[in-house]
């Protein structure tokens, strides 16, 4: 999977990086490399499934989609 990210210099120094297609998925780092490493981790956590998100009930059908 490929996700586009935006990297910008921060006023305080270092870099801010975010994934526009994933609202609220943002990170930062002292160097470009650190910022990229951090956003990669943030994206993985953002996309990690959470069991509590599935509302279990008799009328719930769970599906898996390949993206």
Explained architecture:
This protein has 67 residues and is an alpha+beta fold. The protein has one helix at 32-47; strands at residues 6-9, 15-18, 26-29. The chain has a domain at 6-48. Strands 1-2-3 form a three-stranded antiparallel sheet, with helices on one face. The longest helix has 16 residues, at 32-47. The protein is elongated. The mean pLDDT is 88.
Explain the layout of strands and helices.
Layout: E1 6-9, E2 15-18, E3 26-29, H1 32-47
Antiparallel strand pairs: 1-2, 2-3
| Strand order within the widest beta sheet | 1-2-3
Query: How large, in whole angstroms, is the Cα Rg?
Result: 16 Å
Q: Structural class, from helix and strand content?
A: alpha+beta
How do the SSEs run, as a string of H and E? Answer: EEEH
| Low-confidence runs of at least 5 consecutive residues | none
User: How much β-strand is present in the residues?
Assistant: 15-25%
Helix content: 10-25%
Brief digest:
The protein is built from one helix and three strands; from the N terminus they run βββα. It is α+β, with helices and mostly antiparallel strands and 67 residues long.
């Amino acid at each position: 999977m490929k996700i586009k990210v935006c990297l910008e210099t921060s006023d305080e120094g270092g870099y801010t990086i975010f994934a526009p297609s994933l609202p609220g998925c943002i990170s930062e780092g002292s160097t470009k490399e650190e910022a990229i490493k951090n956003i990669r981790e943030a994206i993985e956590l953002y996309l990690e499934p959470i069991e509590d998100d599935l509302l279990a009930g008799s009328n719930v059908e769970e599906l898996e989609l390949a993206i």
